[in-house]
Each structure stands twice: as structure tokens, then as C-alpha cells.
TrEMBL record:
<dbReference type="InterPro" id="IPR001926">
    <property type="entry name" value="TrpB-like_PALP"/>
</dbReference>
<dbReference type="InterPro" id="IPR011780">
    <property type="entry name" value="D_Ser_am_lyase"/>
</dbReference>
<keyword id="KW-0456">Lyase</keyword>
<dbReference type="GO" id="GO:0008721">
    <property type="term" value="F:D-serine ammonia-lyase activity"/>
</dbReference>
<feature type="modified residue" description="N6-(pyridoxal phosphate)lysine">
    <location>
        <position position="118"/>
    </location>
</feature>
<dbReference type="InterPro" id="IPR000634">
    <property type="entry name" value="Ser/Thr_deHydtase_PyrdxlP-BS"/>
</dbReference>
<keyword id="KW-0663">Pyridoxal phosphate</keyword>
<dbReference type="InterPro" id="IPR050147">
    <property type="entry name" value="Ser/Thr_Dehydratase"/>
</dbReference>
<feature type="domain" description="Tryptophan synthase beta chain-like PALP">
    <location>
        <begin position="99"/>
        <end position="393"/>
    </location>
</feature>
<dbReference type="InterPro" id="IPR036052">
    <property type="entry name" value="TrpB-like_PALP_sf"/>
</dbReference>
<protein>
    <recommendedName>
        <fullName>Probable D-serine dehydratase</fullName>
        <ecNumber>4.3.1.18</ecNumber>
    </recommendedName>
</protein>
<dbReference type="Pfam" id="PF00291">
    <property type="entry name" value="PALP"/>
</dbReference>
<comment type="similarity">
    <text>Belongs to the serine/threonine dehydratase family. DsdA subfamily.</text>
</comment>
Amino acid sequence: MTAYDVTLLQSEFPLLKRMIALEQVNWFNPNSTSLDAARPFIGLDDKDIKDASERLSRFAPYIAKAFPETRLSGGIIESEVAEISHMKANLETEYSIKIPGRLMLKKDSHLPISGSIKARGGIYEVLTHAEKLAINAGMLSEVDDYSKLCSETFRTFFSQYSIAVGSTGNLGMSIGIISAKLGFSVSVHMSADAREWKKKKLREHGVNVIEYTQDYGVAVEQGRKEAEKDPNCFFIDDENSQTLFLGYSVAGERVKAQFKQMGIAVDKQHPLFVYLPCGVGGGPGGVAFGLKMAFGDNVHCVFAEPTHSPCMLLGVHTGLHDKICVQDIGIDNVTAADGLAVGRASGFVGRAMQRLLDGYYTISDETMYHLLGQLNKSENIQLEPSALAGMLGPVIVSDAADYQKFSDLTYVMADATHLVWATGGGMVPDVEMKSYLSFANNLTEVCNNT
Ligand SMILES: *Cc1c(COP(=O)(O)O)cnc(C)c1O
């Protein structure tokens, strides 16, 4: 039984009616605060990010050796930032709106190893676990050259341990690939919506893939249960893990360094808006935390969710966080945006981050597909549907006069940078991508004919 009355909830929060009707909605949180005011509620600080960043540096020689595609970046898993001015012009025409400032794309879609934002948090958590095991066994010390982990000795050592995770696809890909590479025995519990090619790829890497006919919540629960039975099994808890969160957060200082190199200013006169697709919340929450620590109050983060899975908006807006799921109010959690098909948000992320997020909006699957086609045409960049969720953000923020006024941004919008976080798609097989694109094309024709 739920602890609240849905009818009452709707009268208290009228926005819910429109969410239930699956409209594209947006909400700018009137209770967001400065970083300093929010700090005590986060429970994590700069020191934790620094620790994560240093751990990734220690592992860089191992990553470079184990994954040759990262050799050029010295084993640092990072993506580029690209300006997408044609796409900007496209959005302006289509939505009849001027988007002041520049439009950029953060291409986590093309991160090495697993081709999604999960190559940040997922890989980081497995590395953290491996490091702990090896140090405790007296086989590794922090000053060692970690490339020595690329050996039969270590693979045999790690093979005594197993790792389990529940996933809609991309987290399983990251955790599966890195765990199998290190030598762990790894099980990925996949929800019904996970793509066939992702399961196939994982099996090719020697990962044990367990399929469910239910959604993400069930896959996670089953993974958790399996792990509880085995003391040598480590369960990666996407809903509550601070380690995952910190892995994502390192993105903040990385973007800061990239912007510096590109000559992009972020200060009071040059605000930065970042649009992040949100599933359970760990990825976008961790990135937003890192960005806040890097840019302070001059960065403004907005979360994007499918109209069919608006779990974070629901949790934060009602203040019920993980005590409510979208199914409780009659929303089905069925969306083509794989990574975002989550009905119940992370309570940890919602509670830690709610004061630091400026707003939330929902986007329909049709709009995501449409934008997927537009980005392909205007910039020749191919992403998976979920990764387009953030693309509507610049339109929404440019149109939100009240929000701009409330946040004292009206007069600096012309010098803004809009950064759309592209979260996945780099490893989608050609045939899949063709079918995404033809679906997008057909949609456009339907729109034009009506
Ligand atoms: C996982 C994922 C997200 C969101 O991350 P969460 O931590 O689940 O909020 C966004 N986009 C893609 C492509 C993903 O795989």
C-alpha cells in the first residue's frame, strides 16, 4: 500500500495531472539554493571528488594497457565537447524561438569502452572494488604501476570474486566489460527493455546475462537477492551507490579544463546551462554535483526525462522521493529511451541534489526520435534516443522568462553556453542506427503531412 492518496496528491500538485496525461511539462524548482546553502545536505564534498579523480589516475596505466582505444588519452576515459551551431539554427527555426548564446554537445555517447555515460560511474565503481580487494590481499599498493593488474596473476585472483548488477542496458555494458576484463565472474540482470545487441555483446565478453520480462526495478531486486546469497559477490547498487555517483562527478573538473582550453568562459556574466537525461539519477546527479563543485553557482543544471518515466521530477516535486514511483500515479514506464526507463528515482540522489538543480522537464519518445533525426541531418552525429532527451532543454530555458528573472539571468542570456549532455549511442550497431533514423524520418513525414 502507498502511504498517500493519489487524488489528494493531484490537488496539492496540479502538475501531476499533466504528467499523468503524458504531456511534455517543465518545472523550475523555486526551492533551489546557492551551492553554499545546499552543501550541508549533500553529504559529499570536493575531497571525495578529488579522491575519485586520483583513483582514476592510478588506474590510467591499467586502462591504457587493457583497452588500447584509450591509449591516446593515457588511459583517461573522457569525451569531447563539440559546438553544434547547425543544430542550434535548426531548433530555433523549428520551435520559432531565439536561443541566446552557444550550443555545445558533450559526447559521452562516444566515451571509449562502453559508449555511454556509464563508462564514468560503472567502470569507476568496479575499479574501486578491485583496488580494495587487491590492497587488502597485499597484492597492490597505491604507489604501484597499476598496469600490473593486466596479468594472469590478478585475473586468477579476481576470478574468486563475483559482481552483480541490475540494468536497462548501458550500466550492464560498462560493468560487464570492465569486470570481465579484470577477471571477475560477472552477472548482469537485464530488464525487459534492454536491447538484444547489448546482451549479445556482453555474452561475447563472457558476461552472464540474465533476462527478465519485467522492468528495471525488478532486475535490480533480483540482482540484489542473488548477491546476498554469496559473500564473495559484490552488488552494484545503481539506486543508492555513492561510489557510482562520485565516478560520474569527476566529469565536472574535466569539463572545466576542456572549457578553459576552448576559451569558453563560465562566470556570473557567462552562465552555463547543462541539460542531463535522467534515469534513476546517479549519472546526471553525479555529473551535476561535479559541475557545481567546478563552476559554483554559475552552472545551472536541468534534468530531462521521458513523459512515460518522469520519476525524478515526480519524487522531487512531491517531496516523496523514492517513496513514490510513476506507476503509483498510473504512468506506465514504457519508453524507447532505454537508459531512462526507470519508474522510481534514487532517493539518495533526489535528497542530496534537489537544491542544486534548477529544473526538470519531460519529453516524449516522438520528440526524442525527431531530434535524433535532426541531429543526424544537421551535424552528422548519431545518438541513441535517450541521449536526445537533453536537446529540448535550450528551447525550454530560452522560453522560460519567469525562471530567468527569478534566477537573475535575464540580462546575461546572450552570453550563455548551453551544454547538452549526450549520454549514449556510440556503440549502437549500424542496422540499429538505420532503424532509429528511418523511424525518425517517418515521424517527420507524418508531422509534415498533418
Ligand atoms: C543510464 C543512462 C542515463 C541516465 O543515468 P541514470 O544514472 O540512470 O540517471 C541517461 N542516458 C543513457 C543513455 C543512459 O544509459
